[in-house]
């Protein structure tokens, strides 16, 4: 039985630090925030504007948190029109590319749902983390095989981000293999 | 678990007498009488208030009705928190019945999750059970169960069937004989005095020397302010002042 690619919180913080360093270099807008009461669940935040087919501008906000229950990172996000009106789950769903929809529809827990942000206490959308380990393990195994350094956060975010409209500039990949 | 059966039943059958009143600015065709109901502590508002909804909608026009939401003394009530938790957190020092205000418009998007159907409550509940099992058993027990077992767990809660629920839940409460407990204790500590909604951390039930941890040990480690006698109220679990070791289901 192979050991799953779980990682602890310190490792999470280290990968985030490297990720943020590159973000600062290219002006990508990610920030590191810690909660005043505990350093337990740090988060990153990224705002981007995107136009939809109906020419409405939508603002997306992405947070990366660490789940100590599943020992993986989790992507929280919310979206609103410029006048502050939040997008509903069905609007978010409409924005998901067809090729991802089938996968997401397979399991009730592998999907996007609205949940309370564990630090802010406000409604956010979340990609459920319980299968993260399943798809990250082969990624990490393969890079070990070819002796390549991998930033878990970069790899993970490049896999889950596009599902919900978050695309990482390719330069993150270059940065990951330069670290260490 | 058998000697705890009485405690399990007491927790399951705990009720809060509640008075639901329609918000004064809602548009009605005639006066709306308050509605009284005993709410189960272990359930969720949107699961047990069908009768409340029907009662008030009888005196309203369809066009004045959108998603129902509840509020206590100006605070929107998070339906995804167990009812007993909401009461203990917000109203335990007030006289009974618990007075809740019912709204059908101006849904507070920034505060409350939407609850489009009972399926949303089921998804949320099962998500919590799954996360708890990730902590207790690395998800092994919940993942080995069949879909029909998950369904039975949910139906037991929805239909207030203690035996039906515990037939499945007892498997989630077991641990191998060679261990002395779960891998980690699934718990959350809620306080009104803090900005973040709850405290949740990894905590092992057994110390390195083999001693069983108590609830006091847990509080001392993750929330020491809760034990300061002067300004903090005593910790409550399902309305009972806690004295000994307890585990969250």
UniProtKB/TrEMBL annotation, chain A:
Q: What Pfam families does the annotation carry?
A: Autophagy_act_C
Say yes or no: keyword Metal-binding present: no
Query: What does the UniProt keyword field contain?
Result: Autophagy, Transferase, Ubl conjugation pathway
Q: Is the keyword Transferase in the record?
A: yes
Segments passing through the bilayer: none
Which PANTHER family does the protein's record reference? UBIQUITIN-LIKE-CONJUGATING ENZYME ATG10 (PTHR14957)
Q: Which family does it belong to?
A: Belongs to the ATG10 family.
| Protein name in the entry | Ubiquitin-like-conjugating enzyme ATG10
Q: Which gene encodes it?
A: ATG10
From TrEMBL, chain B:
UniProt keyword Ubl conjugation present = yes
Q: Which residues form the Autophagy protein ATG5 UblB domain?
A: 184-242
What Pfam families does its record include? ATG5_HBR, ATG5_UblA, ATG5_UblB
Q: How does it sit in the membrane?
A: Peripheral membrane protein
Ranges for the Autophagy protein ATG5 UblA domain? 11-104
Domain Autophagy protein ATG5 alpha-helical bundle region, which positions? 118-174
Protein function: May play an important role in the apoptotic process, possibly within the modified cytoskeleton. Its expression is a relatively late event in the apoptotic process, occurring downstream of caspase activity. Plays a crucial role in IFN-gamma-induced autophagic cell death by interacting with FADD.
User: Subunit comment for this entry?
Assistant: Forms a conjugate with ATG12. Part of the minor complex composed of 4 sets of ATG12-ATG5 and ATG16L1 (400 kDa); this complex interacts with ATG3 leading to disruption of ATG7 interaction and promotion of ATG8-like proteins lipidation. Forms an 800-kDa complex composed of ATG12-ATG5 and ATG16L2. The ATG12-ATG5 conjugate interacts with RAB33A; this interaction is bridged by ATG16L1 and promotes ATG12-ATG5-ATG16L1 complex recruitment to phagophores. Interacts with TECPR1; the interaction is direct and does not take place when ATG16L1 is associated with the ATG5-ATG12 conjugate. Conjugated with ATG12.
Which family does the entry's similarity section mention? Belongs to the ATG5 family.
Q: What is this protein called?
A: Autophagy protein 5
Q: Identify the coding gene.
A: ATG5
